[in-house]
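in:
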């Protein structure tokens, strides 16, 4: 019980920290977007893209090896990891500095060349982080790591307005990123239990490279999945449109991240416990997919019907152009949430290749998105191409699980079709009213669609009915009870 309590408590702390961190990141973007012009916010978004690219393609996951390895608690191992991180940070800083010119030209903002050069400070500073908060996870001590990630986010929200007021343009985001890196380094050292030191053991270095090099390739795929669309928009359209797109993407992505992390934490142990009982596995899987689909329907139809109003209320009138495509971004995120089901199912069976395979499906439509951007098609079509990529990835996962594990495709396809019907109704309502419907009509439509989707799942997914009946009966008063 002590171990279980510690595990659940640590998991809850991680989930709470992630949710609060995402909320802080969203709040920071709201402050910056409201105070800057859409063009300046678009330029600021390119800094985030550049940092994300170099973080993902250079991450050898040394911190994870520190937790996973049996001798990860060895001080010499940790000291070697520190030295390795410094070398990586210096290398990435130099690489980013040298690529500042082509980056500024790619996005058509040569005036921001100096800013891209200074962005190189971010990986350089992060290279000096203390890895002790990561090492403490070996004994389920998550508090230091959560604080190292969360405290800088909170301070960034507090610093956002003064930075924008002082710098008055896109450079505010640059210095906010540098400030965040400084705070992360300081906090990691302040919360460390061990003293900071360097060592260079070739055996440890070889192990770090062997452990992390496959993740470099997957990191590039993850960058293309999460930032590829924004790179296309930034390169093919102007900075104002990139700023508007970034606002819409952030608004729809934050709930997706929270839902994905919570669902993964809950479903993996649930499905892993019944991995050898195929009947129970299918029942739990069907219920899980239905729940994920229902959650996806709720916020995707919400963005279709109310997305523009939410963005204008949160970020201001200057970002009202999101109305033409934010609904499609909601659909993209709904499919991404639905992908969590097959992904966790494969992981419960010990197959970790599924995310990699699905990412290949996701990036298969990037050439189409590039063509749409270069030919000047409306931004909405680039987003629709992203939806198509997510759909290809999901169908690929369903097909692989059906062939390799005999997991019935209908368990995923039926909820997906119900979700597609719900979103279609939402789009029809939105288009018929031409965005002039009242808030009451939109909210009523949202509630009706979500309830209708729930009823449809209960009626047409056989595994749902007994569990729903059991849930209803458990909350009904028994005979003789008041």
């Amino acid at each position: 019980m002590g171990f279980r309590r510690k595990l659940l408590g640590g998991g809850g702390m991680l989930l709470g920290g992630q949710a609060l961190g995402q909320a802080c990141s969203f709040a920071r973007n709201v402050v910056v977007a409201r105070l800057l012009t859409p063009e300046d916010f678009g330029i600021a978004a390119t800094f985030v893209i550049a940092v994300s690219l170099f973080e993902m393609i250079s991450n050898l996951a040394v911190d994870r090896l520190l937790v996973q390895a049996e001798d990860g608690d060895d001080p010499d191992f940790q000291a070697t990891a520190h030295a390795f991180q410094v070398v990586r940070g210096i290398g990435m800083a130099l690489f980013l500095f040298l690529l500042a010119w082509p980056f500024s030209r790619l996005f058509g903002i040569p005036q921001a060349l100096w800013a891209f050069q200074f962005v190189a400070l971010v990986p350089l500073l992060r290279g000096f982080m203390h890895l002790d908060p990561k090492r403490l996870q070996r004994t389920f001590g998550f508090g230091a790591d959560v604080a190292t990630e969360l405290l800088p986010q909170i301070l960034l929200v507090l610093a956002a307005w003064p930075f924008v007021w002082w710098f008055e343009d896109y450079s505010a985001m640059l210095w906010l990123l540098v400030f965040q890196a400084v705070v992360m380094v300081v906090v990691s050292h302040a919360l460390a239990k061990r003293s900071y030191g360097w060592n260079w053991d070739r055996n440890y270095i070889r192990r770090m490279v062997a452990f992390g090099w496959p993740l470099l390739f997957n990191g590039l795929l993850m960058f293309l999945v999460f930032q590829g669309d924004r790179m296309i928009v930034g390169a093919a359209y102007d900075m104002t449109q990139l700023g508007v797109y970034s606002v819409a993407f952030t608004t729809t992505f934050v709930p997706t991240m929270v839902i994905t992390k919570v669902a993964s934490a809950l479903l993996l142990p649930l499905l892993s416990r019944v991995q050898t009982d195929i009947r129970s596995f299918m029942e739990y899987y069907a219920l899980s997919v239905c729940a994920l689909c229902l959650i996806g329907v709720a916020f995707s139809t919400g963005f279709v019907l109310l997305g523009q109003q939410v963005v204008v209320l949160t970020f201001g009138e200057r970002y009202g152009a999101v109305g033409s495509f934010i609904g499609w971004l909601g659909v993209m995120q709904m499919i991404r949430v639905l992908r969590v089901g097959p992904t966790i199912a494969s992981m419960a069976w010990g197959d970790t290749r599924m995310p990699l395979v699905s990412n290949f499906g996701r990036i298969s439509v990037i050439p189409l998105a590039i063509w749409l951007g270069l030919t000047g098609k409306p931004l909405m079509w680039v987003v629709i191409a992203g939806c198509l990529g997510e759909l290809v990835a999901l169908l690929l996962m369903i097909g692989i699980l059906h062939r390799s594990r005999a997991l019935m495709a209908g368990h995923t396809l039926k909820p997906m079709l119900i979700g597609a019907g719900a979103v279609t109704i939402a789009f029809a309502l939105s288009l018929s009213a031409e965005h002039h419907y009242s808030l009451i009509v939109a909210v009523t439509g949202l509630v009706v669609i979500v309830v209708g989707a729930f009823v449809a799942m209960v009626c047409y997914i056989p595994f749902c009915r007994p569990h729903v009946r059991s849930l209803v009966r458990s909350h009904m008063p028994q005979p003789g009870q008041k």
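note: The chain has 21 helices and no strands.
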